[in-house]
Structure formats: structure tokens, C-alpha cells
Here is the input.
Amino acid sequence: MEDIITLDYGSGGKKTSSLIEETILPLLGNPALDELGDGAVVEGAEKLVFSTDSFVVSPYFFPGGDIGKLSVCGTVNDVAMQGGIPKYLSLGLIIEEGLPAEHLKRIIGSVSRTAEEAGVRVVTGDTKVVEKGMGDGIFINTSGIGVLACPGLSPKNIRPGDKVIVSGTIGDHGTAVMLARNPDLVKGDLKSDCKPLNRLAQALYGLGEDLRVLRDPTRGGVATTLCEFVQGSGNCVILDESALPVSPKVMSACDILGLDPLYCANEGKLLAVVAPERAADALALLKDIPGGEDAAVIGEITDAHPGKVLVKTRFGALRILAKLAGAQLPRIC
Amino acid sequence: MNSESSVYKLMEVCGTHTMAIARAGIRQLLPQNVRLISGPGCPVCVTDQSELDAVLDLSMEKDVIIAGYGDMLRVPGSTRGDSLARRKSLGARVEIVFSPVDAIGIAQREPDKQVVFLGIGFETTAPGTAMAVKLAKERGVENFSVLCLLKRVEPVLRGLAKDPDFDIDGFLCPGHVAVITGADSFGFIPRELGLPAVVSGFEPEDLIRSCSMLLSQIREGRAELENQYKRAVTSEGNLLALKTMEEVLEPSDCRFRGMGTVPLGGFSIKPEYRKFDAKARFGLEYKDVPEPAGCRCGLVIQGKIEPAGCPLFGRVCTPADPVGPCMVSSEGSCAAAYKYSWEE
Here is the structure.
């Protein structure tokens, strides 16, 4: 291996093989992947959950994670939110020539560790190298297959009286990445919450039909996900502002940047809507698992204002939360 | 107060106040006969369309990098949908910065480019902009310039008060501006306009307290300047910041969106620093353009109508596809009304 990835590594020839054999297989190898076939043959199940996601985060190393960790978490979490126990991943790498080989190794190392943490295996993959200027270091696509364990999760199950639960503090990933992009602006040790959620999700599957829906509030944040839960329905979410878990560091960063943590991306948190009589059980289940310690009931479903998400402010007033329009931009002063 | 049936209108001048009021739902908490009117204090909203058009044209020039605050990215030019964000997709170099000094950094890293910082804002951002011009001169960063679109609060408030339709009972004065200019800079409101004025902070508690102070003045028939935001605002302001501004900037006539030219309503760069004035460097001219059909941003900015009073509000004009600047800036009255209110 050379010290940087050149176009030759995407040629499909010897150099491609060396990249796969020296960088990928030592870290991600398993019987299905080691075959290096055109696809992997894996154990089946009656019902599968299948999901895909692409990752273009900039910078590709950020406090609390990197694009490798993110690419595993993103797809694992999507499968888990749909009621699946994630098993297998594909890994598609699009590398910009000039990427230091050391960076690639670190990223694949993260993929490896995170896959192990989540209990999934990378069983098939692809590598392309594009010319300098055609990418931002590295882009990754992952697809994931899981075995359906908790069928029927859907916003359609939500009914008045249900409780809304978040598994921990909100806005950590979005603010950490924003600060990583602008290191001169605010000094702080904010970390992304990037984390596989399948164990937290699986803990809740036991609630059966009392678990209405699960979603990980990534881009657009908690506000946008909740809007998706109730839009077009007869339900309304009333959030309790004082119950929202936001770390003081994230709150300060948001104040300075003019952002709202409710709209900041999360990569290691789930939102669950559960039947009111099981809310305490759900909280206890989440709090018992690493990453769920700060879980909290943050709101309730009513039929008061159909299709709307409202926040009860600390002062008792109600304000509306709409879906995020475009990217959050830092403001002037 | 005269009677329970009278309606009292308080104007919050600052865009950050507008947003904080909406976010905490303060309008719902006030008595029915107390109305909060948003004034012309969102710097993005009051930036004239002709100036935006000039910026958009400039962004397409070869080797030009536009650097500015994030709010400016989506403000539409006179052509619907045209914005710096769109120009960026078409190949323009547009960089979001948090401080004008960051823009100098870009200029130093890319010496073969012309970096133009969009100097937007009131007295709050003016000292930082002035400091950047000074720094660029000291460091000899010749490829850096500032397009000075800075505004001054006092002339625009005087302009509002002169309007025959002006009907405001008291002012919530902008705390951030007052940090720089000093609380006393708002003394003209009681002294010359005969109205109560309270310099207010930005926490919901600050704003509720300031409203209460204004209402007490109205009830007791007083018109005084009071400073609620004493933990940050002194009487005389930040003298170092004021000195820097005076060194680099001078008051000049200035266009305000929907209000026309306000005498001495803005700042321009002094002749000694003309070299760093992007308007001069690129020979920019601002061409008069009509406001977009139906857009009432001008009236909203002057507090004459509320956002919902605009026929485009929430129908044609939304944060995702804004027609006027009040909908695009995070501090704009229309964006605040759209984002946070639901039954007002």
C-alpha cells in the first residue's frame, strides 16, 4: 500500500485487490466476506428488514466518531427502528484520490469496532476511487439486512394518551459536527452521540403492541421526526420543554450559533411512542442499557390540535414546531 | 393605563428579541390588550433588494469569494428563488463565516482570490466589521474587502416615528446594540419622541420584566429610559468598540428595504480605508428594483402590519420558499411568526 490512495486503487486490478486484502479484510473479514464473491450468501429468515443509507459527512473525522462509525450506526439504526435485528451490512466506499491510506485504515477500523458493538457483519462491499476534486475525501454507502423481530411499528399506531420518550440528550451530533467545521468559533469538547441503537430498540420490542413506533431523529432532529409522526393524522404532540434532555454544552453552543437543539441531528438517540401505562416500563428498560441512562418522557399525544407538534414552554405558553426548512444556518448575531 | 379596553402597542426593535419572544410564547402570556409589534431590527430583513442583487452579481465574478453570515445565504434577490445558496450550487464561492476576521483568514489562505465580506448588521456587528478592515490594513491583506451594508438604529427609529401612521406606545430597545452604544444612546426616545423606552435582555424573564417596566411607565404617565439589561449594558457603552467604529466608519444615507433611503441610516467605510471598500473596488452600483409582487416585507419591517396581514404569508411565502427577507432570516418577523406561532 502507498501512503495515499491514488486512482489506480480503483482500477479493479492488482492495486484494488491489495487495498481490499490489506486494509479491508484484516479488519472486517468473516466467512461470508472472505469469499469475495459478487455477493454474499447469508442465512435467511421469513421476514427481513432492508435499509440503505449514504454518508458524506464533512469533516470525516469529528469528535465522538468518524464517517466509518457513522456509516454502520446509520444503517443499523434504520433497521432497528423498523423492528429488525440487524445482521448483515454491505459497505460501498467512494474514495477521492489522495486520501491518506492511514485515514482509510482508521475509518475501516471504526467500521470494524462499531459493527462488532452492534453485532453485525460486513458481508459484501465495493470500492471506487474518483479523481481529486470529485469527492470530499471519502463517501460511504451501507445497506443493512435485519431479521424482523417487532412487526408493525408505524406512526399509524399512535393514539391520544400515548407518551413520547427520547433515549437521551438531544442535539449532540449536529452541534459537534458544526463545531468541528468551525474550530475557531467556539472551543468546546462537544462529542457526537453516534452510536448503534439496536440494543436499546430490542429492549423495547418486548413491549409488543404497546410500542407504537420507533424512529432515530437524525437530520432535522427531534422536531422534524415528531412532525412526521403526526402529520396528516388526528394526533398532536405536546412536548414539555422543561423535560427535554439537553446537555448544558449543547445548549450553550446552540445559543451562540443560533441553532435549536430540537432541530439538530442526533445519531445515537431514538424516539419511541408507547402506551401510557407502559411508559415507566419503557423508561426503566432504556435506562438499564448503556446509552439510555438519560432517557426521559418528553411529551404526550393528544387530539387537541390535529397534525401539529407543540411545545409547552417553561412559562406555560404553547409554540408550534414545524418541519425544518432547509439546512440550519448559523445566524448573524 | 387609561382603561382596560385600550390597546397598548410595544415595539421590539431587535430581531433576536422577536425570536426570543416567539420562542418562549410571550405574546400568549401578555394581557389581551398588550400587543408586541416587531420593528425594523433584523439586519437581513432591512437589507435592500438592490444591494442583494449586486451581491449576487458579484458572486459570479471569477476569483471572487463571498464571505458572510449564514442568514444571508437564502435571502432571495429580485428574481424569485435566486439567492447566494443557488449561486453556490451554480459554482459561486460562498463561505459562511462567524466573524469578519475569519474572512481575512480565507483571504490570507487564498491570495489569488478576492474575498468580499458582507458587512451586515446594526451597531452590534459594526465594531467587528470595522476591526476587520483595520486588521486587513495592518496585515496588508490586499485581496480582502468589505461590502458595507451596516445600519444604524437611531435614524431608523426616528424615521419610523415621523411616519403619520406611527402608533407605538413604547420601545423595547435592543440590548445587543446597547452593549456597544450604551443605554444612553436611546435617551432620545423619551426626550424627543416622548415615549417610554426600556433596554432589554434576551432571556424570556428579561423580556417579560421589560414589558412590565414599559407598561408601568405607560400606566403612570412616565416616559423615561430604563435599563433592564444592566448586567451587560452600561450607560456609555463599549468605548473601545465605539472608537474602532469611528476610526473606520462614518454615518451615511442608507437604503432600507421597504422604507427607502433613511438619512444617515447606515455606515460607510471612511475614505482612509477606501481600499478595503468592496463597493469602490468593484465599482458596484445599486439598481432600483420593484419589490416582489404582493410582498409586504416593507410594511412588516415598519411594524405597520403583522406577518399574517401579508397576502403571501404562509401560502406563497414560506421559510422553504421565501419571497421576502422577513421570511428567510432566522430573526425575521415572518419567519418567527411562521415557525413559532400557531393561533395568533
